[in-house]
Amino acid sequence: MSISRRRFLGWVGAAGMGSVVGKSALAAGNKHFDGYHESLGVLHDISLCVGCRSCEAACCKVNELPVPDKPFTDKHVLDEERRTTAEAYTVVNKYGVTGKIGPSFRKIQCNHCAEPACASACFVKAFKKTKTGAVTYDASVCVGCRYCMIACPFEIPAYEYNESFTPRVMKCTMCHPRITKGQLPGCVEGCPMEALTLGKREDLLKIARERIRKYPGKYIDHIYGETEMGGTNWLYLSNVPFSDIGMREDLGVTPAPELTSGALSVVPLVAGLWPVFLMGIYAISKRKEIVFKEELDEAAHSRTKEDI
Amino acid sequence: MSDKAAIDHKTWFTPFNAISGTIIIIGIVISILRFTVGLGAVTHLSDDNPWGLWIGFDLLVGVALAAGGYVTSAAVYLFGMKKFHSAVRPAVLTGFLGYSLVVFALTYDVGRPWRLPYPFIMQQGTTSLLFEVAGCVALYLTVLFLEFVPAPLEWLGFKKVRELAVKLTLPLTVLGVVLSTLHQSSLGALYLIAPSKLHPLWYSTYLPVFFFVSSIIAGLSMVIYESALSHHYFADKMDAAHLQESEGVTLGFGKAASLILAGYFTIKVMGIAGGDHWHLLGTPYGLWFLVEMIGFVALPSFLYAVGVRNKDVTLIKWTAAWTVLGIVINRLNVSLIAFNWHLPSARRYFPHWMEIATSVFIVTIGIVLFRFIVTRMPVFYEHPEYKD
Q: A6 pLDDT band (50/70/90 cuts)?
């Protein structure tokens, strides 16, 4: 590639402007990331869920996960509270809510955070927040340290502990391979109640607000996932308090990466200043030694003088 | 001939060898299981509890207790406390063995250990504190190796290489302190990302500072405690200088430990005040927190002070052992006991006996290697040909 003088000057100018305007990525900077604007998400309307487990069955099928011993039509499975596992990217739980007739059901899967804790915690960048909205995982680089599982505030990633040589972290991919082809995620397609809606996250927020407005008194006036942990691409509407259906309301609105950015920003400071400080202490202790020796010599010298 | 063989056999079959041999054989069997059947066969790790004893004890406690290396070499080479010189080599050896075993233990814990270099050679996850820990531990292990290498070189008689290694002492010490500051604190910072899982009495934005400061306490106490053990078992290997300086090391390190424990107590209280978590002190977790704070921070600070004032070496040595236990409790609290405190008991973690046996196996390897080295190389004495 040949570079013309004009183009080169253009680059220099752009670099100069870049450093003046500055797009700083510093932890304490002014930058605010509010998610990819065109990204997709799913709205789960908990008031519509009947706990039929069709989403679980569809998920199992499209992701080619092992078929469980008890069939998906077995409703007794719901008697026990479950979480995602290496064999199930999504599970539905049943909750009894005081003051409400009949149980409530909630589907659990990866919430696909706007700024994922797992991706921030991964030391080989195995997790990636894609522009589609899905948080994907690349098993080909994963070391298996499981820090992602420590970091995830929603307790979603699971691990193949019984794989001896190729254990993977397992979690919902929002059916990334399917949505990039224009297909619906397995669970959304499988839901007979239309409790799950795929769409652009921004549109889903509008739909959710509209439902809250249209049916006053039906919904809790909060869209779970709009701000939790900095926002997630999976959003929830509910007719019962979120804490009654096992959803934590104490997670805060801080995106996970911000929790560690302060500690990380100290690293270059320590690396840069500690040696200076330590060598300063070394110089002081060295000088003390020299002065001590000089004074000793002097004392010895004056003693000999007196003797004379 | 047969008599001689019998005598040889008898001398080899010591209680130490019998016990360590048994532990090592059990350890090897579990290792085979771990690396052929998988983590699930030998651990109680689960999707809720991805980090168990091998991280809580082998990594967090291991790294903290191996802090004696940087603490002692900084005191002697940077702060000019030459009267502690004889303590450097045992401390650096412990550090080197400690870190080697930490890395060895990690190969058991991570799913695909052969990929441990991936964060450096494939993709750098620089937003992860674990990346920093991994980088610093890898570099610091190299530093400790270089700091310790004069001993085997003297043993083998490689004078010129040894000269070169000794010349590196000052830069290596500085680098050692920098790297230790970084990764000791980062081990605490690992948990900053999980405020919703770690009990608020232990979670604090000061976690990295807590871990760093307590690592100094751990380092000082380990040097004292180890010196007490070594005097019991390896007194015949020690030269006059080592024996003569030893009491001064115990008193000096005890004094430092007392002061730093007091400072540590203060910043821990500030952590509670900062989060306004006073009301949690009345809960069961709060009582356990108070046991840690009063029993294993305030009490040893006081006992160290009394020991130093009365020149009571025995009291200081027992206090050192108590403080080391306190560090173990603190690290296990953060990683296991107060972690996932919100989960129902059925979803909590308790280690499988094979996890415990593996940790014992790894500590045993450390003791066997330590014994092998100090009985052969100039660690507790200066090599007559290399007196500086």
A: low
ipTM of this model?
0.91
Whole-number Å distance between alpha carbons of B173 and A58 = 59
Q: What is the mean pLDDT of residues B215-228?
A: 95
Q: By C-alpha distance, which of B210, B207, B318, B307 is closest to B256?
A: B307
User: Does residue B13 fall inside a structural domain?
Assistant: no
Nearest to B189 among A252, A260, A274 (CB): A260
Tally the domains of chain B: 1
Is the CB of residue A161 less than 8 Å away from at least one CB of chain B? yes
Question: Would an 8 Å CB–CB cutoff place A165 in contact with chain B?
Answer: yes
Nearest CB to B129 within list A146, A157, A263: A263
Q: Give the three-state DSSP class for B300.
A: helix
Closest CA to B207 of A266, A136, A204: A266
Size of interface A-B (CB pairs under 8 A): 172
Residue B10 lies in a domain: no
The answer to whether residue A128 neighbours chain B at the CB level (below 8 Å) is: no
Enter the pTM of the model.
Answer: 0.90
Asked whether the beta carbons of residue A282 and residue B118 sit closer than 8 angstroms, the reply is: no
Nearest Cβ partner of B112 from A167, A250, A251? A167
Range of the domain at B187: 19-374
Query: What is the CB neighbour count within 10 angstroms for residue A164?
Result: 17
Residue from A250, A220, A253 nearest A237 by CA: A220
Q: Is B234 helix (H, G, I), strand (E, B) or coil?
A: coil
Mean pLDDT of B49-53: 96
Q: Is the sign of the CA dihedral B261, B262, B263, B267 positive or negative?
A: positive
Examine residue B280 and state whether it is found in any structural domain, yes or no: yes
Q: Is the pLDDT of residue A22 over 50?
A: no
Domain with residue B72: its CATH number is 1.20.1630.10
User: What integer best gives the mean pLDDT of chain B?
Assistant: 92
Whether B2 maps to a domain, the answer reads no
